[in-house]
């Protein structure tokens, strides 16, 4: 061994709680650990301690040449052996962790059998007939087809879920067999069911409050399928103060002038009393099947 090699940095620049032997053979430049100066050849690298070790093990590891790494010709063989042993140990730990994580992901399946082919689901929505409010609202695309979990985004999200579960098991030293236990299955099922019920409650609250908004109130009032549903339906709507307030509020906002507003109110009388064409037997027979445009 050369005298220069025996006078390494002896780890005095090594960070606290680090056992990396690379700092035994180099030192940071101006206190910056990303810039390391090698003790044996004086070369300065901007790749930190990792690049320093790659340089000292003669720019190769397990038969693979490191890209853009200079070979050090002055490093003693015993230093090379120590660094190689340390690097192999770190690599082995990384590979074992990844292997356990992959095994955990294979065992943890929140949505069922991963081998089942997930196909795109298309929701069939019946063609919507035009109604009296279509002039004031945006149309809905009835051909909308939501993407199922075979899209790259949803697959990535599913992989993230599996990864997070696997990480929690690994970091807390929980046996991977736990994912196969009945208690684990019950726990996951309870979580899924709880989330479904929470979503249902949110949708129910939104749906129940829709008639509090003027535009929804008008759409409900002007839908013959609701207004003429029973003999008392119209009376119930007419006595609903909030419903009538929403109707009148929309009329006031949408009417161009007083004459326009008066005409709308006259048309509502025709609608409410079923006179003219609305009172004919054919029109009443189609109330539940055709919404007049």
Automatic annotation (TrEMBL):
Q: Which domain of life is it from?
A: Eukaryota
Biased composition annotated in UniProt, kind: Polar residues = 1-20
Q: Where is this region: Disordered?
A: 1-31
Its protein name is Uncharacterized protein
């Amino acid at each position: 061994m050369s005298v220069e090699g025996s006078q390494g940095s002896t780890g005095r620049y090594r960070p606290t709680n680090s056992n990396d032997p690379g700092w035994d053979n180099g030192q940071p430049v101006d206190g910056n650990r990303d810039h390391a100066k090698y003790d044996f050849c004086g070369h300065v690298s901007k790749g930190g301690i990792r690049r320093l070790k790659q340089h000292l093990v003669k720019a190769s590891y397990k038969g693979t040449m490191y890209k853009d790494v200079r070979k050090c010709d002055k490093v003693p063989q015993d230093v090379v052996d120590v660094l190689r042993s340390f690097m192999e140990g770190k690599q082995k730990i990384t590979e074992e962790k990844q292997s356990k994580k992959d095994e955990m992901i294979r065992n943890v399946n929140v949505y069922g059998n991963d081998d089942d082919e997930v196909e795109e689901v298309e929701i069939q929505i019946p063609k919507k007939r035009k109604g009296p409010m279509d002039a004031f609202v945006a149309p809905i695309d009835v051909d909308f087809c939501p993407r199922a979990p075979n899209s790259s985004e949803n697959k990535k999200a599913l992989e993230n879920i599996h990864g997070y579960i696997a990480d929690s098991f690994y970091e807390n030293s929980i046996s991977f067999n736990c994912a196969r236990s009945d208690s684990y299955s019950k726990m996951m099922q309870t979580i899924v069911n709880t989330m479904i019920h929470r979503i249902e409650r949110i949708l129910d609250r939104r749906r129940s409050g829709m008639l509090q908004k003027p535009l929804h109130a008008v759409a409900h009032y002007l839908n013959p399928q609701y207004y003429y549903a029973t003999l008392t339906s119209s009376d119930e709507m007419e006595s609903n103060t909030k419903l009538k307030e929403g109707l009148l509020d929309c009329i006031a906002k949408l009417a161009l002038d007083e004459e326009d507003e008066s005409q709308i109110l006259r048309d509502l009388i025709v609608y409410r009393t079923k006179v003219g064409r609305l009172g004919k037997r054919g029109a009443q027979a189609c109330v539940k099947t055709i919404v007049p445009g």
